[in-house]
Design brief:
mainly alpha, 2 strands, 60% helix, globular, DinB/YfiT-like, MST-like, DinB family protein
């Protein structure tokens, strides 16, 4: 049991760290910067957070039969049928504060699931094929960490492209200080072009 508790604490800490890094990447940006599509497929920072919040609820709520207290905040299957990207952008009626507030509540809700259930608790992922839909809490937390860390990588690149803010996180940027990034990128460009 002690090993399970230690693993659960480790997983909770990793998830919290990832969630905090996502929020750090949004700091200081205007509402327009958060909403503006940054890729040909429309990837935008605020939409990514909305998607991550919906995903975290689905995996740590619905999968384990824990209903969301305010169902009108969730994207429905009918909305996804009408617009397959409905969870990837904030509507005109949704403010940045709405999305971030929703994500804060989802994070608390999901953490309660992890805290209250054993890692071997069994749930059913509603949108997975029945042959793979039965999962344990431990499996789903690992799956969720992989999923949202992938999105954090997308957010990292987009944020760096907006204003140069880069790094692993506020407490540990994980980048050399006072580095000549222009010279470094010029060096890499020369290498890519086959010049010296």
């Amino acid at each position: 049991m002690a090993d399970d508790d230690a693993l659960k604490d480790h997983l909770r800490a990793a998830l919290k760290r990832t969630q905090q890094n996502i929020l750090w990447k949004l700091e200081g940006l205007s509402d327009r910067d958060l909403r503006l599509p940054r890729t040909p497929t429309g990837f935008n920072l605020l939409g990514a957070v909305k998607h991550i919040a919906q995903t975290e609820y689905t995996y740590l709520g619905e999968t384990f039969s824990r209903p969301w207290p305010n169902p009108d905040e969730l994207i429905t299957s009918a909305q996804i049928t009408a617009d397959p990207q409905a969870d990837w952008y904030a509507t005109a009626d949704e403010s940045t504060e709405d999305i971030l507030g929703f994500y804060a509540r989802v994070r608390t809700f999901g953490d309660e699931t992890i805290r209250e259930l054993p890692l071997d608790a069994v749930g059913t992922v509603p949108h997975w094929p029945m042959v793979t839909a039965s999962v344990t809490l431990g499996q789903i937390v690992v799956h969720l960490l992989i999923d949202i860390t992938r999105h954090l990588g997308q957010i990292d690149i987009v944020r760096e492209g907006i204003d140069g803010k880069a790094g692993l996180g506020e407490a540990n940027p994980n980048l050399p200080e006072d580095h000549d990034w222009a010279a470094y990128t010029a060096k890499l460009t020369n290498l890519a072009d086959g010049t010296r």
